[in-house]
Amino acid sequence: AGRFRCWYAYDNDPKAAFRFRSARHEGVAWLEMDMDANPERLLGYYYTERKTSGDMDVRRTSRAIDASLS
User: Fold this and answer.
1) What are the two backbone dihedrals, phi and then psi, of residue 51, each rounded to the nearest 5 degrees?
2) Would you tell me how many other CB atoms lie within 10 Å of the CB of residue 18?
3) So what's the pLDDT on residue 68?
4) What is the pTM of this model?
5) Which end of the chain is more exposed for a tag (fewer CB within 10 A), N or C?
6) 53 secondary structure, DSSP code
7) Cα separation of the two ends of the chain
8) In a 3-state reduction of DSSP, which class is residue 68?
9) 70 pLDDT tier (thresholds 50, 70, 90)
10) Whole-angstrom distance, CA of residue 36 vs CA of residue 68
11) How many DSSP H helices and E strands does the chain contain?
12) In sequence order, what are the residues at sequence separation of 6 or more whose Cβ sits closer than 8 angstroms to the Cβ of residue 8?
């Protein structure tokens, strides 16, 4: 199996109601899946031009498809 990593760049342009607390910014992030350790989990990291950064931990909670999200 192995590890798979996805890098991406993003541009966050918040709605006017939220700009007082989150100005427009760009960032870069990656998410990695380790198929041998846990294929139901993504671990990652992000950083922004605002000099903020953080970790991400995404876990699958259900395999069911929620029609309300479509």
Assistant:
1) 65, 35
2) 9
3) 77
4) 0.72
5) C
6) E
7) 30
8) helix
9) low
10) 32
11) 0, 4
12) 28, 29, 30
**Amino acid found at 16:** A
- Would you say residue 67 has pLDDT above 90? no
CB-CB contact of 31 with 58 (8 Å): yes
Q: Distance (Å, rounded) from C-alpha 54 to C-alpha 42?
A: 14
- Burial of residue 41 (CB within 10 Å: 0-12, 13-18, 19+) is middle
Please, which residues have CB within 8 angstroms of residue 53's CB and are 6 or more apart in sequence?
45, 46, 47
Neighbour tally for 63: CB within 10 Å: 6
Q: Which two tokens stand for residue 55?
A: 């970790």
